Amino acid sequence: MGIIGNDDDKDTNSFIIGKLVESEELLNLDISFPHVILISGKRGTGKSYSLGVIAEGLLETSQLVLLTDTMNIYWTMFKKNTQNESKNLPNYELISEGLPINLITIKSNDDFYETVQTETNLVRITKLILLPSELSPSEWCDMFDLSINSPMGMALFDAVSIVSEKSSFSISDIVAKLNETEIAIGTLKALERRLKSVEQWGLFGEKGVKLNELMDNRHINILDLGIIPRGFGGGMRNVLLTILIRKIMNNRVRIRKYEELAEISDNAYLYKSKIRKGLLPLWLLIDEAHQFVPRKGTTVSKPALITWAKEGRQPGLGLVMATQRPGALDSEILSQCDIIISHRITLNQDLKALNDLSQNYMTQELRYAIGEIKGRGKAIIMDDITEKLIKAEIRPRKTWHGGGERKIKKY
Ligand SMILES: Nc1ncnc2c1ncn2[C@@H]1O[C@H](COP(=O)(O)OP(=O)(O)OP(=O)(O)O)[C@@H](O)[C@H]1O
Ligand SMILES: [Mg+2]
To answer: I want to staple 102 with a disulfide (CB 3.0 to 4.6 A). Which of 30, 48, 80, 219 is the partner?
Structure first.
C-alpha cells in the first residue's frame, strides 16, 4: 500500500483514495494530522469528484467534515453510485452505497430538501441561523457587495456601527437606525429592500445555532451556498463562509487548549465534558476555491482562509481546496499546500503556478508529468511530506456524483 501525507507507515490513520498507476498498489491518504490539500485540473477532469472521494473517506474514518458546495452538486451523496465506474469499487475493497448527509441550509429555502428527505432517511436538514451581531459593520457591507466608500455602503456601515454598541440587535434595528439618519431617500429605500429580503430568508435570528448542533461526524456536512438567491453577488457567500470559519476556528482554538490540558493533567476527566461540548478537529472542503481566495483582489473570506491554512495545524483544522485555476488562487495559500493532486492541466499560467510550488527534490518538472496524464480521475500527486511525485488514479465514488449535464428528456 502506498500512502501520501505521512512518511511513517506505522503511525498513521488513513483511507483509500485510489491506486498507483504503475504498480496498481492501493493508495491511501493520511489524516493523522491536518493537511492543506489542493486539487486542480481543467474542466471536467475530476476535481469535484475527487473532493467527494475525500469527503467519503473522511466520513468513513469518523472525521468531522464540512463540504462547501457552491454548485449544488453534493446533495446526491445519499444515493449510491450506479454509474459505470462503480463496477471497479470492489478493486478498492469498497462497495457502492449512499451515505448519511447533513444539508446545511437557510430557512427560506424552498421545500426541495424536504422532498429529498421523502426519498431516504439518510438526509438530515439543518437550518443555519446567525446573529446579526456576528457580522462586523464592514461585513454587512460586504454581504451586499457594497463598497464602504459608496453612499449606500457608508450609510449601512454607520448604522450597523451604532446599533452594534448594544450587545445584540436585529435587522429591524438597522432599518430603524437608517430611518433616523439623513440619507438620500433612494439610498434608504435600496438598503431597506436588501435588508428586508435578507430578513425574509431567516438566515438571521435572535438565537444562533450552536456549531455542534449544526454539524457532526456521523454525516457529511454540506454547506449549501447555492441557497443564496441569484442576484446577490458572491459577497453573501463569502460572508457566510467567513462567519462559519471564524466561529469554527475560535471554537477549536479554545477546545484544543482543554484537549492539551487533558493530555497533561492527572485529572483529565474534569475536562472531558468541556471537550465533548466543543467541535472535533475539522476538515473544510471547498470546491471552486478561487472564488474565496482569489489571487487578485480581496474578499472577506481570503484572510480568514489564509489564517486557517497557516494556523490550522495546531487546533486540528485541515483544508482541501479544488480549483480549475491554481494560477487564480492566492499565492500565500498555495504555498501552504503540503499535498497537491493535479488532474490534467493545459493552461500555461496554471502550470506555472503549480511548477512554482514544486520543490527541489523533484527532478522532473511537474509540467511534463501533468502533460502526460490523460483520462478522468487520473492525477499527478505532489507530496511535500514524503517528497514524492506520483501518478495515481482516484478511486470511483461510493456515492452518486451530482452535477451531470441535463440531457434532453421528458419527465
Ligand atoms: N476518479 C474518477 N473515476 C471515474 N470517473 C470519474 C472520476 N473523476 C471524474 N470522473 C468523471 O468525470 C466527470 C467530471 O468530473 P468532475 O465533475 O469532478 O469534473 P470537474 O473537474 O470538477 O469539472 P468542472 O471544472 O467543470 O467543475 C464525472 O461526472 C465523472 O463521470
Ligand atoms: Mg467541479
So the answer is: 219
